[in-house]
Amino acid sequence: MAALLLLSTLLLLPLLLLRLRLWPQLRWVAADVAFAVRAVRCKRALRASALAAAAADPEGPEGGCSLAWRLAQLARQRPTHTFLIHGARRFSYAEAERTSNRAARAFLRARGWRAGSGGGGAGRAGADERASLGAGDAAPAECGEDGATRGTAAAPLAPGATVALLLPSSPEFLWLWFGLAKAGLRTAFVPTALRRGPLLHCLRSCGARALVLAPGNHEQARGEGGFWLAAEPRSCAFLTLSEFLESLEPDLPALRALGLHLWAVGLETHVAGIHDVLAEVAAEVDEPVPGHLSAPGSMTDTCLYIFTSGTTGATVVLKSKFSAGQFWEDCQQHRVTVFQYIGELCRYLVNQPPNKAERSHKIRLAVGSGLRPDTWQRFVRRFGPLQVLETYGLTEGNVATFNYTGQLGAVGRASWLYKHLFPFSLIRYDVTSGEPVRDAQGHCVTTAPGEPGLLVAPVSLQSPFLGYAGGPELAQGKLLHDVFRPGDTFFNTGDLLVCDDQGFLRFHDRTGDTFRWKGENVATTEVAEVFEALDFIQEVNIYGVTVPGHEGRAGMAGLVLRPPHTLDLRQLYTHMCENLPPYAWPRFLRLQESLATTETFKQQKIRMASEGFDPSTLCDPLYILDQTENAYLPLTPARYSALLAGNLRI
C-alpha cells in the first residue's frame, strides 16, 4: 500500500507542478531558498537594531531604527574607519557623526529649540536669546546704523517640516541630510538641474518650508527662481530673490507673518535673508542632540536599504560628477569593490576606448537598474569577472525585486517563495484606456507567462505605502481598490513587467505620464506646460520613444500650431533651455494638424510612441535636436541613418 501511494505521488507530482507552472522553475529552487534565507536574516537584523536603539535611548524616535541612530552606533564602534572619500578629502565615521551633530544643532535653532532644555551642551556662544525662542516667536529684524533692514529671522520650523536640499554630490550634502534627520526635519532632495517653473513646482509639491542652496544654484535661482515663504500650508507665496531683496523693508510685516528659512552653502558675500549654513554649522558644538528630537524611523525606511554603505560600516567613494574616462582609475585608486549604477552609466563605460585600469580593478559586484541586455553582455565580457545585480524598485513603492541569479536581462524572480515574503502580482492592463482589465465580477485578471502585466503590490502593515508629500489626493491616485476581492488595496507601480515560464521578471514599459531618460524621470505634463506657454503652440503631446543604442526613452513632442502662427524653432529652443533641465528637452518634434486622442479625449501617448520618428514612414514634418548646432534641425533620412549608426549625439 505504501509503495502504491509513493508511486502515485511520483506520477502526480509532475502534473501538479505543471498545473502550478512550477516545473520550469525547479532548477532555481536552491537560489530562491538561499535568497529568502538572506532576506529573513536581514529583516531580523534590522529588528534587532531597532530593539537595541530603543533600549539605548528609551526617549528616542518611534521605531528606534534610523540612519541617524545607525551612524552614531558605527561612530562608536569604529570611529577612525574611513566613512567617506571625496577627492583628496577623507572623513572618518567619528568626523561624520560630529559634523552632522553640529548641523543638527544649527537646524534645531531654526526649530526654536532651547539648547538647555533637551540635554546636550551649551550650543553657540552669544546665541542664547535665539535658542530660547518658543514655537510661536520670531526674532526681530537686524538693522544697520542707517536703519536699513539687513535680514529677518523666520518663525521656527515645526517638527517634521520639510527642508529642500538643492545641492550637488558633496560631503556637505550628507552632513546636512543627517543633521536634518537628527533635528526632526524631513528632507526633500531636489534635482540640481531644475530651474524656474519646474523648480518652483518641485518646491510646492514637497511643501518645503526651507531651502538649502549651493553657490552655483544660488546664482541660478537669483534671476527667476523663487523660494517658499509660507509657514502654513494654506498660506503660501513665492518671491524671486531679487524681488525679495528689493521689497524686504516695505514687506517686512508680511514676511514676518509668513516666515522664511533660506540657507546657502559657502556664501562668498553676505546677502540679506540668506544665511551661510556652513558657518552656522561650524559655530555649533558637536555633542549629540537628544534622540527624541530626531525624525522617526522604522524598518520600512527605504533609506536603510538604499544607503547600504553607510549602514554596513563600509567606505563610500563620492564623486562630484561622473566621468567615464576616469571611472576605472578611481576604482583602482580607492580599491572599490562594489559600485551602484543606472543603465546609462554602464553604456557610457562600454563606449569608452580601452583603458589599462579597466581589467585591474577589485570590483566584484555592480548593483543598479535599467541595464539593457546588450549592454549587460558587453559590460561583463569587457570588465569582468564581476557579478551584476539588476534590481527593480520605486523610492515610494512597497515592492522591489532582485535578480539574484544573474539571469541576463531579468530584474528579478517571481518565485512562489519570493512572492510569499514580498507579495506582488502582474495584472492585465489596457494600454488604450490606461486602466487595468477587470472581469465580469469587477476584479482584476492576472497575466499568463510571457504576457505584459501591470505590477501591483498589496498595501498592508508589513508593506505600507506612505504616500507623497504633496497631499493625500496624490497618494490616492497610486492606489487600486477591489483588485482581487472586495475591500483590498494595492499600490500601482505604473510599470509593465513580463514574467516568463521560468519565473524571471523583465521590465517591459512604463505607463502614465512619465518616462525615463538619462537616468532621470521626465514628467510629460511639466514639459507640456513649458511648451504651451509659447504663443504659436496650440496643443502639445509629450511622450517617450525608444532610440536604438540608448537606455530609456527620448522625449518627443507632437505639436499643433495656433493659426496663423508658424513654427519658430529658435524661440522654441531658447524657451526650452531656459525653463527645462537638459534631460527633459524633447529630442524630436513632430508637427501635426491635430493630436490623436481616445474616445474619452485623452492624448494617445502609447500609439504615438509606437509610431516612432522614422521620416520614411511618417508624413508629418519631423525635427531632431542637434546639440552640436544647439538647434532643432529637419530630421532627414541622412540624419536618421546617422542617429542609428551612433554618429549623431542626442
From TrEMBL:
EC number(s) recorded for this UniProt protein: 6.2.1.3
Annotated keywords: Fatty acid metabolism, Ligase, Lipid metabolism, Lipid transport, Nucleotide-binding, Signal, Transport
GO biological process: lipid transport
Domain AMP-dependent synthetase/ligase: 313-403
Classification via Gene3D superfamilies: 3.30.300.30, N-terminal domain of ligase-like (3.40.50.12780)
GO molecular-function term, one example from the UniProt record: nucleotide binding
Family: Belongs to the ATP-dependent AMP-binding enzyme family.
Protein name as catalogued: long-chain-fatty-acid--CoA ligase
Record organism: Octodon degus
